[in-house]
Amino acid sequence: MKAVSIPALCLLLAALPALADHPDAAQLAKSKQCLSCHAVDTQAYAPSFKDIARRHSAADTGLLVRKIRAGGRQHWGEVAMPRTGTLGTPVTDAEARALAAWVLSQK
Ligand code: HEC
Questions:
Q1: For ligand 1, atom 29, which residue shows the shortest CA distance?
Q2: First and final CA of the chain: distance in angstroms?
Q3: What is the rounded distance in angstroms from the CA atom of residue 79 to the CA atom of residue 90?
Q4: What does pTM read for this prediction?
Q5: Residue 107: which residues within 8 A CB-CB, separation 6 or more?
Q6: Residue among 22, 106, 25, 94 nearest 65 (CA)
Q7: Which residues line ligand 1 (CB under 6 A)?
Q8: Alpha carbon nearest to ligand 1 atom 42, residue
Q9: Per-domain residue ranges for the chain?
Q10: 20 to 30 A from 12, CA-CA: which of 19, 24, 26, 105?
Q11: Residue 28 has pLDDT above 50, yes or no
């Protein structure tokens, strides 16, 4: 029973990525390769998610969703963030929303 219900729960959670307080957004960030460039609280190749959260308010959610999907450059420095799908599997709009909300909650 346990072996069946845990994967079923994972599927259910994966199907609801737009939930406001996405409990496994951290896992999503890992599976979408975000953490190969970003760390939550230290500057790595890319700015930390805490620094990003400090620079943006919830009003910027739409901007961050677009950046997560399209990539971006020159907001933080010369290093660019590639368009989604360049590394790993592409991020959907709903996933980008969950990730943006999660990043903004890292203050
Ligand atoms: C190849 C490295 C790389 C990967 C992978 C990557 N990023 Fe980035 N990200 C960057 C860099 C570099 C910047 C800074 C770009 C700039 O200066 O505008 C950035 C910026 C951002 C910003 C801030 C945008 C802004 O305007 O302040 C967010 C939010 C973000 N990334 C989220 C993510 C998420 C979520 C993922 C995973 C889906 C991800 N990143 C994957 C390198 C990466």
A1: 64
A2: 39
A3: 20
A4: 0.83
A5: 50, 53, 54
A6: 94
A7: 29, 32-34, 36-38, 45-47, 52, 64, 67-68, 72-77, 79-82, 87, 91, 99, 103
A8: 81
A9: 2-104
A10: 105
A11: yes
Report pLDDT for 11.
46
pLDDT of 22 higher than 80? no
Residues 72/81, Cβ–Cβ less than 8 Å: yes
Q: Whose Cα sits closest to atom 34 in ligand 1?
A: 34
Q: Which of 72, 55, 64 is nearest to 102 (CA)?
A: 64
How much distance in Å is there from the Cα of 4 to the middle of ligand 1? 36
- Better-predicted residue by pLDDT, 89 or 27: 27
State the distance from the centre of ligand 1 to the C-alpha of 68, rounded, in angstroms.
6
Express each pLDDT in 62-105 by its tens digit: 999 999 999 999 999 999 999 998 877 899 999 999 999 999 99
CATH class in words for 2-104: mainly alpha
